[in-house]
Amino acid sequence: xxxxxxxxxxxxxxxxxxxxxxxxxxxxxxxxxxxxxxxxxxxxxxxxxxxxxxxxxxxxxxxxxxxxxxxxxxxxxxxxxxxxxxxxxxxxxxxxxxxxxxxxxxxxxxxxxxxxxxxxxxxxxxxxxxxxxxxxxxxxxxxxxxxxxxxxxxxxxxxxxxxxxxxxxxxxxxxxxxxxxxxxxxxxxxxxxxxxxxxxxxxxxxxxxxxxxxxxxxxxxxxxxxxxxxxxxxxxxxxxxxxxxxxxxxxxxxxxxxxxxxxxxxxxxxxxxxxxxxxxxxxxxxxxxxxxxxxxxxxxxxxxxxxxxxxxxxxxxxxxxxxxxxxxxxxxxxxxxxxxxxxxxxxxxxxxxxxxxxxxxxxxxxxx
Length: 368
Known about the structure:
Blueprint: H1 5-13, E1 18-27, E2 37-40, E3 46-48, H2 56-67, E4 73-78, E5 94-102, H3 110-118, E6 123-130, E7 138-141, E8 146-148, H4 153-169, E9 172-177, E10 188-195, E11 200-204, H5 208-219, E12 223-228, E13 244-247, H6 250-255, E14 264-267, H7 272-282, E15 289-292, H8 296-308, H9 313-316, E16 319-320, H10 332-348
C-alpha cells in the first residue's frame, strides 16, 4: 500500500472513484502479506499487486465493479486441485481480499492518510472487513486525532485505542470486536493497517561497501544514513540521492540519534578507534541488527577490546560479526547482498539455507 499511495492520493484529490483491493488475511504459503494492495482507477489503470500474479485478474474485476458503484466485497482465494489454471494460488496458500470503493464521501480521511505517509508521519487505517457493521467503512487514526467512522461510536472508540497501540508497534492485521466495540466478542472483523515511519539503517564508514549497502538498504525500505568522521569520504556525491550523509565521529552521532527495535546498524569502519566506542554505544541501545565488518582475527581483537571496555557477554552476543551470510561474496555489491540477506533472515527467522534443502512452507504464516 505504501508504494501505491502516491498514485491513489492523486486520484483521490481529483475526485476520481477507484476500487481498492487489500490483502487482509493469509494462510500457509501465500505470496503477499496483509496490507498488500492493488487499485483500479480511471481508464482501468492498475497499480499494485495482491498476489504476484495468481489472482490479479479476479481482483481487477472486483475492484472495477466496486469502483462503478458496487458494494464492498470480502473474497477468499486458494489453490484449486482440480484446475491449476483456475483462479487460485498455485503456491498452495490462501489469501482474503477486502475490496472497496474509495471516494471523498466514503472515506474522508484517505487524502490526509496519503499525505501523512508521504511525510513520514505515523497513521493507522482501520477498515471494516466483515460482520454487523458497514463493510468497507474506514477510520483513519493518528496519535492525536481520528477521521471517519466504522458506523458505531463504541466501535470507533475501541478501534481508535487499539489502532494507536498497533501504530506504536508498526503492526498490521485483523482484529475482532462486538458491534459496539466489545472486546470479548468477535462478530465484527476490522483490518488495522499501520503506516509507521520507515525503519532506519545507520551505516558507519563511508567506503565503497557502504555505498552498496546504502543502495540495497533503500531498496529494502529503510531510511538510510551514512556517517563517517572523515569529511573527504563523507560527501553526498558518493551515495544515492535519498541517503543522508553525516561527517561526524560515529559514536558521537549515534549517542545523539534515536534508535528502536527496527533500526539496523552496520559498522563498516574497520578501525578500532572508530569501532570500539561506536559498538560500545550501539550494543547498549535498541536495534534489530548490529553488524560489523572484518576478518575473524579482526572480530576476535574487537571483541576483546569491547569486553575490556565493560560490555557483558549478553551485550556482545548481539553483534553479528563478521557481518553478512556466507555467500562467497567478493565485490561491494555482493557483500551488500550478503548483509541484506542476514538482515532479512534475522527479521523473519529465516535459516539462510537454500530453500531446496528445507521443508515446509516457503512463506510461513506470520499473522493472526
